[in-house]
Amino acid sequence: MRILWIESDAVFSKQQAKRLSGYDYFVDTVIDEQKAVGQAREGRYELAVYDLSFQKEVSWELIKSLLEFDIPVVLIIDRKDTQLQINAVEQGVEEIILRPVRGEDLVARLRAVIRHRVQISHHRLESSGLILDESRYEVIDERQRIIALTRTELVLLRFLMTNSDKAVSKEVLLKVLYQSGQERVSNVVEVYIRMLRKKLGRDRIRTVWGRGYLLCAGGSTELKVSDTLIDD
Predict the structure, then answer these.
(1) Domain limits at 135?
(2) Does 176 fall in a domain?
């Protein structure tokens, strides 16, 4: 597995590369954003780690460029900054890791992101007028629009599609999005629901008061909810 590690401190980034090499990862380190884009364009990376431990500002343009090359981005931060985490989620960052983090935990988190991309099958899921193509990270609606999704949007939409006749609570969706022990953004479900509504249409995902979120067919004006509520 090849990883692109972007870090402003050359000594620290080389230390991380040496640590990850012990887990059979090949790591290229860069300290310059332009060089990072060049490396991403020329290389074949399964993952990019953008470490902000020694930086005060995040380059959203860099993240955008990496995602355009279809490279999932993991962001490492050294302080809990809710707004930064929300912005990262909205920009399509796959995973946010808060320092301090142990080496074994870091490797486990990176493996989880890579494993998800490798294990995605080529089957297509159809529900509520949508066709979800997991291998391409795309969904097709009734108007035959092809809509690109981030990994987390895909995970959330897939769960809603497989439970399209049921209202799904926020607590369940949090468990779907996060593994046990991972750092959570308090309103991450609302953020992703808003992003999916922006892409699919506001009425596609309805809020059922006191119950959760319900996926509806496009153009549907009648709200139909089964007696089943998916909750804790």
Answers:
(1) 124-215
(2) yes
The number of domains in the chain is 2
pLDDT tens per residue, range 137-190: 889 888 888 899 988 899 899 999 988 888 999 989 988 887 544 556 668 899
Q: What digits encode the pLDDT tens for the residues 94-137?
A: 889 888 888 888 888 888 887 766 555 456 788 888 999 887 78
My answer on whether 12 and 111 are in the same domain is: yes
Same domain flag for 100 and 156: no
For residue 14, the one-letter residue type is K
Residue 228 counted as domain residue = no
In a domain, 229, yes or no: no
Same domain, 95 and 170: no
Dist. CA 184–CA 177, nearest whole Å = 9
Is 46 among the domain residues?
Answer: yes
Tell me the whole-structure pTM to 2 decimals.
Answer: 0.61
